[in-house]
Automatic annotation (TrEMBL):
One of its GO terms (molecular function) is endonuclease activity. Keywords: Endonuclease, Hydrolase, Nuclease. Residues 31-81 form the HNH nuclease domain. This is HNH endonuclease signature motif containing protein. Transmembrane segments: none annotated. It comes from Sorangium atrum.
Length: 117
């Protein structure tokens, strides 16, 4: 995995309060929750995904979403793929797509490290 992508993953981890440093199979890592289903996703201290972690674009790139940190979260591969297959092909004003984007934005905001403090 490219260094820039690993750095981006670590930037996402640094902003997401669900991620905590832990040890997985004797290896130090960051463990947190999928932005969609809340299942565990694990990232190495170097930013390399260990278990199911993928970069989720809250507003899909197909609809103008960027790689800006406020548009990114970590998701398990299954949820990320399913969202892409079900929603990325819809029009930007599709009510289902709009609802999912708003829900993910709210969830991301509630998980910001330091939110509410």
């Amino acid at each position: 995995m490219k260094a820039a992508r690993r750095r981006l993953i670590l930037d996402i981890v640094a902003t997401d309060a669900t991620f905590e440093r832990t040890e997985i199979r004797g290896q130090a890592a960051w463990a947190g929750k999928c932005i969609h289903c809340l299942s565990h996703v694990v990232v190495g201290l170097d930013g390399e995904p260990i278990q199911r972690a993928t970069i989720e674009h809250i507003v899909p790139r197909a609809h103008g979403g960027t790689d800006a940190l406020d548009n990114l979260a970590l998701a398990c591969g299954r949820c990320n793929a399913l969202k892409g297959m079900r929603l990325d092909v819809r029009r930007r004003d599709d009510p289902r797509l709009v609802a999912v984007i708003e829900r993910l934005k709210e969830r991301k905001a509630s998980r910001l490290r330091g939110a509410g403090t």
